[in-house]
């Protein structure tokens, strides 16, 4: 059984629990940003996230914390499920 302390974010916990990386996460962030016709700077401004971090998320260098994941989801008007698993909200 995998146990997590309170500091582990959702994305990393999901990755460890499934035994796989979030391979599609970076491309889904990029796709959603482009669909919203936002630059990385504009998305960063809307989500209150440094635009450098947006670049890191889109290239897969970093995974967002729970708080950042919620901010991205809100700013892009997509569900967290879409960002993490590719499932859209219907």
Explain briefly what this protein structure is.
The chain has 90 residues and is mostly helical. It has a single domain, classed as lambda repressor-like DNA-binding domains (434 Repressor (Amino-terminal Domain), Orthogonal Bundle).
List the helices and strands and how they pair.
Layout: H1 10-18, H2 25-35, H3 40-47, H4 51-59, H5 66-76, H6 80-85
Properties at a glance:
disordered N terminus; 434 Repressor (Amino-terminal Domain); single chain; 60% helix; 90 residues
Indicate how many domains the architecture comprises: 1
Q: Please, what is the average pLDDT?
A: 81
CATH superfamily: lambda repressor-like DNA-binding domains
| Global shape | globular
Structural class: mainly alpha
By CATH, the topology is: 434 Repressor (Amino-terminal Domain)
Strand content: under 5%
Tell me the distance between the termini: 33 Å
Catalogue the unreliable spans: 1-8, 16-21
What is the number of helices? Answer: 6
The biggest beta sheet reads: none
> What's the total number of strands?
0
| Oligomeric assembly | single chain
Secondary-structure arrangement, i.e. CATH architecture: Orthogonal Bundle
Rg, nearest Å? 13 Å
How much helix, percentage-wise, in residues? Answer: 55-70%
The H/E string reads HHHHHH
Query: What's the CATH C level?
Result: Mainly Alpha
């Amino acid at each position: 059984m995998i146990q997590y302390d309170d500091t582990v974010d959702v994305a990393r916990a999901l990755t460890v629990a499934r035994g796989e990386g979030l391979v599609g996460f970076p491309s889904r962030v990029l796709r959603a940003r482009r669909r919203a016709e936002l630059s990385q700077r504009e998305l960063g401004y809307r989500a209150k996230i440094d635009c450098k971090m947006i670049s890191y998320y889109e290239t897969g260098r970093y995974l967002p914390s729970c708080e950042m994941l919620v901010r991205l989801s809100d700013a892009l008007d997509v569900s967290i499920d879409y960002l993490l698993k590719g499932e859209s909200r219907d």
